[in-house]
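Why this split exists: single-chain examples teach little about how molecules sit against one another. For that reason, every record in the complexes split bundles all components of an assembly together and asks for one structure covering all of them. Below is a record exactly as it appears in the raw files.
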Amino acid sequence: MLRTKTCGELRISNKREQVTLCGWLQRSRDLGGMTFIDLRDRYGITQLAFNMDTDAALCERARKLGREFVLKIVGNVVERSNKNNKIPTGEIEILVSDFEVLNVSKTPPFTIEDKSDGGDELRMKYRYLDLRRTPVRQNLELRHHLAIEIRNYLNRLNFIEIETPCLIKSTPEGARDFVVPSRMNTGEFYALPQSPQTFKQLLMVSGYDRYFQIVRCFRDEDLRADRQPEFTQIDCEMSFVTQEDILETFEGLVRHLFKVVKQVDVPPLQRMTYADAMRFYGCDKPDTRFDMTFVELNEVVKGKGAAFFDTAELIIGINAKGCADYTRKQLDELTDFVKRPQVGASGLTYIKFNTDGSVKSSIDKFFSEDVLRAIGQKFDAQSGDLLLILSGETEPMQKALCELRLEMGSRLGLRDPKKFAPLWVVDFPLLEWDKDTARYYAKHHPFTSPKSEDIDKLETSPGDVHANAYDMVINGVEVGGGSIRIHDRTLQNRMFQALQHAVMFFIQSP
Amino acid sequence: MLRTKTCGELRISNKREQVTLCGWLQRSRDLGGMTFIDLRDRYGITQLAFNMDTDAALCERARKLGREFVLKIVGNVVERSNKNNKIPTGEIEILVSDFEVLNVSKTPPFTIEDKSDGGDELRMKYRYLDLRRTPVRQNLELRHHLAIEIRNYLNRLNFIEIETPCLIKSTPEGARDFVVPSRMNTGEFYALPQSPQTFKQLLMVSGYDRYFQIVRCFRDEDLRADRQPEFTQIDCEMSFVTQEDILETFEGLVRHLFKVVKQVDVPPLQRMTYADAMRFYGCDKPDTRFDMTFVELNEVVKGKGAAFFDTAELIIGINAKGCADYTRKQLDELTDFVKRPQVGASGLTYIKFNTDGSVKSSIDKFFSEDVLRAIGQKFDAQSGDLLLILSGETEPMQKALCELRLEMGSRLGLRDPKKFAPLWVVDFPLLEWDKDTARYYAKHHPFTSPKSEDIDKLETSPGDVHANAYDMVINGVEVGGGSIRIHDRTLQNRMFQALQHAVMFFIQSP
């Protein structure tokens, strides 16, 4: 080794040891009689001291070193006079006796600090410099730590990681394939896998009853903030299990990861039906770090003389607790928010339960205070609360109120990034009706099994059939999901019939 | 779970337990009063028993089941009357009380047995059936086990696994790239990585001083037995280290893997210089499970009256101990072997030291018995030994004798597949002279550092410069290797000069 220690490990107990360190020059300070240099490596920062009195020549050389120079230094560990209790090595410094410049550096185009002065584009251009920054390094370390823990956890449960090919035959999945022209067979192409779907099914057929793979997937789709052409997923498949076994297995994995990687004790996961998720949160990936659940008002407000409510399919609202003092300007902002095309409401109704006991609303001229108070009761509204209400068609209003709820959660500081609220969303519908084409589509995919108690509805009321399908959601983000596959040919045929496109899928099956 | 136990775990201690198993019908035997079925899953085989006397209907149903049917059975664990001590579950069987056919199966196109009757092509076509066979499954399990152990070992040494992209810019490496057309930029292409070479160097520049990745690599080359278009390698890179640190790290890894995965204690690895490997084994990946090292005879036989030796650049041989009784036919076979184009010798000289004390050779008319005995002494030949000698140009003869040595090792049973002889081959030459183009080429790659004591020869005698480059070889197979990179710009320039194509590489560097 060129070094005897890293820049992160020296403590007061190492006092008087001679050490050799290698690293990058983070910053230097010239105090006349002394020159100090912070030397950085992956493990931390150690202060180097050069003394003009004891070795002027060395100190002069040190003063010529620039940021990000790569150094190898030899020196003795000494106790600092000015201790820095913000870093683990802050009690010591190295009195340098000699050093070697392993490599010089141009002045970096942005500061290599936790908060850099470099913009996104500049940092991407010089990615190898950005990767030196502690927050970026910690992301890679977290990812590594997660991967190691995932593998060991699943290995303990008898899962076997099996690598599947990257150069495969194109299979119909949701997205567009990347293709690779074949040199040996002109005009023919490999596809890069959108997921190892087909391979893991074949592995189940082959009897590998617990498979996993942390695997690269490829989808030739347009970029979005959470979508890239290539990404990595934890791919799993199990045989001879029920939905319950899968939920327990991966709930166990996630709780274990929070425990060992983030030191967070996550309680057993809540299980919410898809129906409840839509009813109380307006979406199938609810952020349950905070309540503010939807309240339906159809019964309370319909037929009470307000035409805009009477004609609405759904009237729903949330209780923004303690927001009765919102100003006209703030309420206008919220109205503008819900009217944004991405949110899609036509307007916002509010009711304030003021701290002085009065009630003030945007619908005062349509409703008596009694009706307003009756509405308040549905929300369990207290003095100081603000009710925000939307009305219109069911799906658009659920989506819009979902957005407004998240907005209010953010405004009220209820979406703490340090808090984690994972849950299962279960009992998804098996099929979705599409108005335009007047037919059902598979909500998950056409191989998803219906719940056994619903099978008989496949022909009579397909829209009421629930699926053995589930998603894991954390803080409003879908982090995983899956389903129990149909293993029975007869049932699969009934499913195809329900989908009215059995022929198409049979032709594509291998 | 559909099952309560696997097919591999029941023992006599489970007697009288009721269990549910799932698995594949391996085979069935109908003995009139009883029907026995072997049920197989990933974990083993359990015998099922059906009794005609106690449940004729169930027994009749069981008799209709075919090979590879997927079953779910319920029954009680009972002690077998005929125990099978060849399998861990051999003391018990399940008296089946009920079963369900989870899926039927067509008769498989080959037997799902350790030794299948299916040829390669048929087994590849039905790969999902071949994967059910125990030897194939054990290969995948071994690979999984190795990967887990490698990751944990390197993680303990502070290595961090970092995933690098698959859709990259083409970089010049040894082989042909697979390319992926870009949809967004017509006419432009991604390349699939031949290795994460560039990325790991950037990671070192970024300060991730111990990187690894078990990673897919892609090379668009023609297929060979040991070469596929995509393959997985353990990719590593370290900063601030010497060659010695790398050898120790990966020697430690390999010995650990042999210990935990194969329960084999491998002693510290031999280190053999490239020069010795060529001199004693004729290649840079010697199979050291057996000796039979080369002996050079130039001094002993030249100028003794045999023109075919006098004109040869190199005369070398091996001692096939105990083979003096080889027949004319066997010696002709060996002569045919060395004359094959892949081996490339023009003929084979032999000397037999017979057990009766006589000496018999193919060169009796050229040499006296004294000369033959002098040759024998060089080989430490004993009574009963057979010397096999080749003569001609140095490199072709080394290659040919290397092949002959391996052939003799195989014939004599000296290449035990259960024995492991890993070693390091070190001190590779930095440069190789190419006669045709009359210039030097980098033996490893042009960024490999010369040994510090040889740097001054870069300009004066480049062919004598040794490199900080090393290969790990096990049983004649190169399993890994690497080099210390040049980190100094001045030295890199001298290297480019020595290669006389500095310009070309500067243009290609990023």
